[in-house]
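Weekly modeling sync, notes
Attendees: S.R. (lead), two postdocs, one rotation student

Agenda item 3: backlog of single-chain predictions. S.R. asked that every request posted to the team notebook include the full sequence so nobody has to chase files. The rotation student volunteered to paste the first one in as an example of the format we agreed on. Action items at the bottom.

Example entry:
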Amino acid sequence: MESSINKVINIPELNIAFFSFAFHFIWEFIQIPTYAGMAELNHWQGVLVCTQATFGDVGIALIAFWAASLFVRSRQWIRPLTPLPLSVYLLTGLMLTVALEFVYTKITHRWTYSELMPLVPPLDTGLSPLLQWIIVPLLVVFVVQRQVRD
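Predicted structure, as returned to the notebook:
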């Protein structure tokens, strides 16, 4: 009989959330120079901003995970991994990222890009958040695939 701890460890959403938080948190700090004013914040303000952004990233990751799960009608799509749910996962995360970056940089002006941020047309979305939503989710899936057992 599987122990309670193993049952919890095998919940794919918990793994997605945990590893997404860890990897996105690191990414948020790496991309600080590409957002205006971030490098000038005091240490704890920067940590707070990056932590808040990371919680948003985890939310996007979970929405993307559930979209892929709905698409293939299984929360266990990571094992075995196939291209279709992975594509839905990545595309959902990318679409949400583009939409949120547009809202926050063009409509609400919650943040702005620094001159170091390359922009990707047609919406002038920053390259760093786009790369974040390709690289980090692939890394998360790679790790979670090894963590979750059948």
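Discussion: group reviewed the output briefly. The chain has five helices and two strands.
Action items: rotation student to repeat for the remaining queue; S.R. to check formatting next week.
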